Hints:
The chain is mostly helical. The protein is 68% helix and 1% strand.
Amino acid sequence: MHHSKSIKKRAKTFFWASLFFSKSQQKDIAVLYSFCRYIDDISDSHEFDKTEAKKKLESVKKELKTLKSQNPQINNFIQLKHKKKIDLNLAIELINGAKKDLKKVNLKSIEELIIYSYQVAGTVGLMMCSLMNVTNKNLLPFAIELGIAMQFTNISRDVKEDLEMNRIYLPESFRSFNFSSYKELLNNNKKKNLMVGDVLKLINYSNKIYKSSMNGILRLPFKYKLPILVASRLYQNIGFIILKRRKQLFRKRIYVSRLKKMYITLNCILFLLFKNNFNKSNDSYHKEVKIILSNYLRKYDENSAYYEV
């Protein structure tokens, strides 16, 4: 069973939302998607051992830097990069994030989680901005926030699968339990219950980030508001379902039903038609995300400070 930190689990939501883009944009999105998925599969697959996977990720980085590759997924992405002026640093960061999954994962702080989520999901938000030709610098931090919020949703939904792969993304600062091994957590009902409670805290935290990202979504060019709003709401809804049915978290995979998807989509359309006028959005970013990322990005690259603090 593949685990999930990834875009393939986002697939259903992803494809649903992409139906609202033009045909040529759907093609671009598919190229970006399959590149992200390719990276994800390397860090998740059972084909390679950890050392091999690491080597493979490093060689993808080299190919990106030389802008030459025999691999169709990478090559198509390189063409897309030229066509849409995608910042290569973003793809490199995505790979750095995927490399973190090759070790046992046991995150300590919200800071670590936000940086990891920026790498594997915030970067994808920024690459999507390039595909939509969104160049307004003020909108970029909101794209990062939406990516991070969605990643928090992924992490909340996939606690059990992740534990089975020796990964715990729920930061220690959110935990009300200690554990000696990943196995122990899977078999200890009392601790599992505590963990579910902690996941609910993470979902509530993510809801604040979703809310902040709305300030950006509502300022997108009209034709992009709907698909991005739909993707955001569908994803956020997974968290709402977990809040309502916490007992299911370790039992079965939680997803949004087809009917619910249609309902949410309709809701988004009505929201944009009617409420949009009242919703004069502001520039308030999520404070903690902003501080953590601006520090990180400044260390990482002078030119890609999307947050000016």
